[in-house]
Amino acid sequence: MFIGHFAPAMVAATHPKAPGLGTLFVAGQLLDFGFFGLALAGIEKLRITPGITEMVPLDLYHMPYTHSLLGSAIWAAGFALLIWLFTHNRTGAIIGGLVVISHWLLDLLVHAPDLTLAGSPPKLGFGLWDYPLIEMPLELLLTFGALAFFVARTRPIAPSSKFVLVLLVILLAVFQAANWFGPAPEVADTNMMITALIAFTFASIVAALVGKTRMLKQM
Question: Which domain holds residue 10?
Fold first, then answer.
């Protein structure tokens, strides 16, 4: 799951007390921000193992702090606390935390068994990365269905709204196409990890621009 992690962010952004769309995009990928940051520091571990799944060669063999359910809950609580400290918006903080937790649940669908409840076995994962004819349309449906939901419940408030919205669509499509059809990495090196962090950051910046150029419709 890559761009599918942004789907809960776009749905959540339609709540009147939700944080901004950019903040929610960060929430949707916060566990991977943390994972690649910790991997760069040598704390969590991954390697390239061709064939470990049909779609993704990443062997995510040690990630107890970000991709255990307990670790995810701690990251979610920390993110929610930050939102509350900056905004004093309790509902918005809860929404942000739930979007963080959604990452683990979506990963549970697609990962090979490499997720844990608290950092130790059993390892969990339903393995849809071995079934591309299911995973690929599911990810597209989740992502662009959520985006359509967001657009239907908001209206533009700036001349640039259409431009940044189209930019977000193109960006998400290009990122996912590169993830699916680009050359598979040969080694899990620093360049790969930094590239992933840049991609998450860029998507969040564009989402923030979309959020600033649209507002919720009166229902």
Answer: 3-216
